[in-house]
Each structure stands twice: as structure tokens, then as C-alpha cells.
Amino acid sequence: MRPAIGVGCPSPRTHLPTLPRATQGGSASAGDGQPPPMAGGRALPSVGRTPISLEDTMTETVTGTVVVGAGQAGLAMSRCLTDRGLPHVVLERAGIADSWRSRRWDSFRLLSPNWQTRLPRWRYAGVDPGGFMTGAEVARYLQDYAGSFDAPVRTGVDVRRLYRVAGGWRLSTSAGRFLARTVVVATGDLARPRIPAVAADLPPGIHQLHTADYRNPDQLPPGAVLVVGAGPSGQQIALELARAGRPVHLAVGRHKSLPRRYRGHDAYCWMERLGMLDRTVDTLPGPPGRTPNAVLAGGTRDLDVPRLVSEGVVAHGRLLGCADGRLRFGDDLAGTVADAAANATRFRRAVDDFVARTSMDVPAEAAPEVVEVEAGEAPALAGIAAVVWATGFGRDHGWIEAPVSGVDGEIVHTRGVTAAAGLYVLGLRWQYRRSSSFLDGVGADAEHLAEMIAERAAERPAVLAA
């Protein structure tokens, strides 16, 4: 049963056992299609000068569907296939929900409240529905989910190639070959940290790391820190560093502000009530692209650039590079902060309109005071000890040998269905709904794909042979 949501959410709509999307632990890695010279620390046997991959000496596993990735998307897909009695296996490069442990900092917490952590036939049932889970808690939640239906996950399997064969798809992996009628790529958006080219221009003495590798302030060398990026990760880490006594500079790029709570309820509660999370990609004026995420923090307080400045963070415009021994920033800070604040204003107005239309009994709340932010003086490179790149992630689909990518390198699909028969994707941003990449959103897309796979299996039973 879904826990009671009396924690600040006005009677959210009844939640079906499925829903939209999320962020995942990846499983596949890019490869050149050739077997490595070493495997498992052992030299490969060879014939003459041509090494023989251990993969070639293993038997081929035949199954109905292979799901690549055992994060929330891959597990939701497995649950939906299991419910329909469809044979499948889930291949995961590391461990179940690994990215929630390995790519989150120590103080990380979900942006959405615990009550909104829902997957097909599984939802949060703890004692703190209004709280915000840590990365480790999310990993345990997903591991328990996999155990609840004995998900057929094989961990430690690196998928190197995926290509068409007669009757289906073949996957070459570190654990041998797999042959399947259908494949669901559920590796999500965290495959490859994005680091701008300007990183190469910084002096070698400056310690650089991406948020995927950041854990806590003690990890960084003593001195000032430059955080590049003002999305949720960048602002949360900048605040943590400032509270740890570090001098912090923040290079502010495009982002959206949202109030953590408004008129007595959490922002995610209002987004659900107003149908914002269920908005579909076909209602957008154009392709969603890489739209910036709304900035929130787990808890009850708002998080935005003015608050960071009040806590001692020095804000700048976007990072342009360095010259004459100093960092260079754009002069766009004021406009960027104003644009972000405008998003929060639109959100509050939408809530106010909804309350007026429905005569909801919620407390009134005055609009917050507008705070202008001035850019600080660009610091000398010699004064910067470390740079944290909060610049997001890119996908890595180089291992997929099928003509399914667009000119931008992204997989072209309609609700997760590609032009290549039997190849599907799951867990992408705006895959179909705004929430398709969220923990609370991937389930609906998984149900949709499971239905398509079931129909395909019924129409033409697979004829596969190892």
C-alpha cells in the first residue's frame, strides 16, 4: 500500500502501480568491437599472433529479452517483464543501483520527497515519507526492489557490442555472448561525465574533479574552490564547501529556481497536483534538448544563487577561460539569475491560479523579496586550489551498432521505440513525460515497453539458436 501522504501534500492523485521515469546505474560501456588483450587479469590464449577472446570460448546465452542496466529503469523493466511471464536477463556492469553509491557525494539527498519514490509494485514504506533519501538509501531501496521479485540480474557484465543478427540481437560481453529477440537499453543519462574543453587550459597544479568523483570537502586540497555549474549539484556542493569554511567561487550557467515549499506544501506535491510531471514531450514547442534542471535541495529551505551569496559564496557569470593569470567569466550573471528567478515566479503563479480555481484551503504566502546579485572579482589562478566540474553527464551509446542515432548522437525513438525492430530505450530525460527519468516516472514507460514486447512476442515467436 502507498503510505499516507499527510506530509504537506494535498491529496495527490491515486497512483497506479506504474508511472514515469528516473536516473540509472549504467551497465554498458563503449568499445571498439574488439576483444581486449586481457580479461579478468589473465592473459588470453592465442593462435599465432591473433589473441582469442575468452568470450569466444564461452557458450552463447539465448533469452527473450536482454535489459542493459540495473538501475531504476532496468529494474522497473524487469518487474514489468516478470509480471507478463516474459523470459529475460538484466546485465549490469557494476552492481545493482551502483551509480547511486559510486557517483553521489556523501551528503547527497534526493530532490523529491520519499513518498514520491514509486516503482511498479514497489514504493517507499518507511517512517519518513516527507524526508529525502540519501544516495546509499536509494541504492538499498533498489536492491530490495530487485530482491522482492528475484530479478534475473547478472552483475559484473560489461556489454561491449550490440548488433543485429538473424532473428534478433547479439550482445558481446565480458561474460560471453547473449542472443535475444529484443533488447532494452536502460543505462540512463550518467554514462560519461561532461568536462568542458577549458579544463585543459588550467594550470596542472589545480586539482580538478567532476561531481561524479566528489565526496566531501576534506577530499579537496586546502584553499579556494571554483565550482563550475549552478544546477542542483553545483549549488548544493558550493553550499557545503562554504559551510565547511572554504572560500568558494561559483561560475553560474543556465538553471531554474524553484521554491522548496510554497503555501504549505512541497514543490513536488504541487507539480504532481498541477499535472506538470505528466506533461508529454509532444506538447512541447520543440525538442526538449538539454533543458536545465530546477534547483532544489532535500529539506525545507530554498536553494538559489542569492542564498549562496548570503552564505559567503562569490558568484560569477559563466566560465569563459583564463588569461593573464586570472579566470575569465561572462558578464551574464545578473541576467542568468533573473531568468532563474522568473521560473520560480511562474511556478508560484501557477499554484496560485490552481488554488483559486479549486478553492483549496491552503495558507496564503507572500512573494519573496527580489534580491539582486553582483558578480565578484575574478580570482587569480594562483589562488584556486581546486575546481569541481558540476557540468552534467553525457550518454555513451558507441557500443550500439545500429542506425538509430540522430545527427546529435542521441538515439532517435518514439516513447522508447527505435526504428530498429526489437531495440528499445528506457529512462531518458523526456522519453515521453517530464518525469520519464525520475524514480517516480520510469514505471509508466517500462509498462508501455513491456506491452510492446509482449505483443511482438505473441505475433511472431522468436526463432533463435545459439
Automatic annotation (TrEMBL):
<dbReference type="Pfam" id="PF13738">
    <property type="entry name" value="Pyr_redox_3"/>
</dbReference>
<keyword id="KW-0560">Oxidoreductase</keyword>
<protein>
    <submittedName>
        <fullName>NAD(P)/FAD-dependent oxidoreductase</fullName>
    </submittedName>
</protein>
<dbReference type="InterPro" id="IPR036188">
    <property type="entry name" value="FAD/NAD-bd_sf"/>
</dbReference>
<feature type="region of interest" description="Disordered">
    <location>
        <begin position="1"/>
        <end position="49"/>
    </location>
</feature>
<dbReference type="InterPro" id="IPR050982">
    <property type="entry name" value="Auxin_biosynth/cation_transpt"/>
</dbReference>
